[in-house]
């Protein structure tokens, strides 16, 4: 999919991912949500577009007449920004892939499930969540196809929300982002699957920037001679995001 922006007109594009709202507990998640809302407030005057690159929620499933409760501050802020005319796009991640029409219908925020090519002037950016890309992780790639299947979604929808969301919240407590003592470490370029993926892709098509989430580690690494791979990190430990001014992408940390 391709999206073109002719000029930013002195505005900037912001990228953030992996808020993982909902874990490890209500109080911690709420504090993080308030921090994210404060960040959105801080960038709204400069924002041309805001791209949320997946795993915003640690779990999300839209039943026909129900969604997971909570997150009202974030949802309200996103609605406010959209009503003010700021474009926002949402990429599904491996934790919130079961998003359907709620965001497009209620918030006027489009949903993307695959990486997007973004052309700004003469530059090209490839953006997305990043799960399932690159070598390895074959079991997850199989699970992703199953979870994305209509049969799996239909099957889960048959479970009462109290039980279905309860099961999902139990799983979330065992996820890697919930284990606060487990640190993410740089694996060396060859051990960074998204970096390997970007390098292979760069041999076929040139992109000035590759911007992904999923990795949970803020990264800014060279790709070939004239490209860079940016990972936006996560908001449980780092509070990092990326900002693009039409020429360069920079990783930044939000501090209240």
| Topology, number of strands | 12
Helix count, DSSP H or I runs of 4 or more residues: 7
CATH class designation: Alpha Beta
Low-confidence stretches: none
* End-to-end distance: 36 Å
Report the helical percentage: 25-40%
CA gyration radius, whole angstroms: 18 Å
Write the CATH fold name: Purple Acid Phosphatase, chain A, domain 2
Q: In terms of structural class, how would the helical and strand content be classed? A: alpha/beta
Largest sheet, in brief, is:
6 strands, mixed
**What's the SSE pattern?**
EEHEHEHEEEHHHHEEEEE
Q: Strand order within the widest sheet? A: 1-6-7-8-10-9
Q: So, CATH architecture?
A: 4-Layer Sandwich
Percent in strands: 15-25%
Number of domains: 1
Describe the protein's architecture and organization.
The chain is an alpha/beta fold. The protein has a single domain, classed as Metallo-dependent phosphatases (Purple Acid Phosphatase, chain A, domain 2). It is 30% helix and 23% strand. It is built from 7 helices and 12 strands. It has helices at residues 26-43, 72-83, 102-107, 138-147, 150-157, 161-172, 193-202; strands spanning 2-5, 12-16, 47-52, 88-91, 111-112, 116-120, 123-128, 209-212, 218-223, 227-232, 240-244, 249-253. Strands 1-6-7-8-10-9 form a 6-stranded mixed sheet, with helices on one face. Strand 9 and strand 10 (227-232) form a beta hairpin. Helix 1 (26-43) runs parallel beside helix 2. The longest helix is centred in the first third of the chain and has 18 residues, at 26-43. It is globular. The mean pLDDT is 88.
